[in-house]
Amino acid sequence: MCQLLGMNAKTPTDLTFSFTGFAQRAGKTGDHVDGWGIAFFEEHGVRHFVDHDSAIRSPIAEVIRNYPIKSTNVIAHIRKATQGVVSLPNCHPFVRELWGNYWVFAHNGDLKDYKPRLHGHFHPVGTTDSEHAFCWIMQELCKSHVGVPSIREMTLTLRELAARISPYGTFNFLLSNGDALWAHATTSLFYLERQWPFSRATLSDEDLSIDFSERNGRDDQTAIVVTAPLTQDEHWTPFASGELKVFVDGVHQNL
Amino acid sequence: MCQLLGMNAKTPTDLTFSFTGFAQRAGKTGDHVDGWGIAFFEEHGVRHFVDHDSAIRSPIAEVIRNYPIKSTNVIAHIRKATQGVVSLPNCHPFVRELWGNYWVFAHNGDLKDYKPRLHGHFHPVGTTDSEHAFCWIMQELCKSHVGVPSIREMTLTLRELAARISPYGTFNFLLSNGDALWAHATTSLFYLERQWPFSRATLSDEDLSIDFSERNGRDDQTAIVVTAPLTQDEHWTPFASGELKVFVDGVHQNL
């Protein structure tokens, strides 16, 4: 199994605090040592980092922990290989372009005997069930809409597609095109929203705390989605099984 | 205008020496300060780094200069904006997936009034003429072949496509899918092959030399392609205008 971390923010926000805690699970407080990856949207551009080394040893992960890359949508993943060897093409998140948008996807879980035919223009480079599922989602989105749909329409389509894959196993995933963050849970996913007045937060995986009120203003709003709560002193809301949620401008949308 | 750097190697090889010299042109020995990017293939996986900061200031470029990422195919680019604003989606190299391969592309030059219709599945995310040309090439490749063609067939198709774009302006480009490196010149591109017995090389842009014989064995072979020669004491061969060359296992192929 793997672990997921996603961020959706109203204003460009850095994820160094959360990523520092999350990366501890790649060997220190967890055994997710078979690669890691993170993708940051800046408007519709993407910075995409993947490594088959673990996120606590990788020199590139060290830069991410220390260099505040500001972004409105981030998806990160640490991998414990279940299907597919430990190799660069098997590291999440995966990126594809559709309708002139980059789409970033990461999956936590295991899909059994899941090999739908890929008759469109999206094909996996690696050998994971996750990338196969992502390519199928991209193919079906491409058939369902002629261009980038509204966030509401996209959410409805994704709910249908997630429900068609879910019977094959555990399908916790994060998806973003830079405009919104979609998150689907089968087993374990939690979210929280940080907004004014901000308070202090302490990581669960590392002896580190931060006072968000010193760094954020009234306009800042951030939502964090993660496999298991990252902090001890904040209220994390669990997803129900089968639930797909969407976050825009740092806030959970009732769509 | 921009500058290009490509590497094709028989065995996984690091590019820290060449990239150190190349990055000096992003502000120190050149004025290519409007972003940079580099993509490393590891088998068919890609590590892709882009930044709208300059390659001599960027903390991520510093990691690339110091952390030896070993790769068989690398494409790097430093940008001086001619078309398209300075932003992340406009940073080369660009990446798309076709036939289950990632394709990495970087362009140096300027295409005038070049806007062919994109009726396929590849669309630019940014606003550069370069990404538009890349999407058109991907579209035409997809129409010309049903799957990844042989390197010989791919080279013939690319020659036809490059000849159709070249009348619009300057079209120096590098393209790779991890199996080979294709390079096309309109104005300025040079290459060299490093093989046994290796010798010493001294950068033109920085006071740094390296003795390749201490780091390489009989089996190592590397080809470097670049906009302007990187070293003072090696023999760089210029491309003729309109020439498209292909490199496999560190050697220029007569195809």
Automatic annotation (TrEMBL), chains A, B:
One family name in Pfam for this protein: GATase_4
Gene Ontology molecular function, alphabetical: transferase activity
Keywords: Glutamine amidotransferase, Transferase
Chain ranges of the Glutamine amidotransferase type-2 domain: 2-255
InterPro entries per UniProt: EgtC-like, GATase_2_dom, Ntn_hydrolases_N
Presence of keyword Transcription regulation: no
SUPFAM superfamilies reported for this sequence: N-terminal nucleophile aminohydrolases (Ntn hydrolases)
Name this polypeptide is given: Class II glutamine amidotransferase
Species of provenance: Corticibacter populi
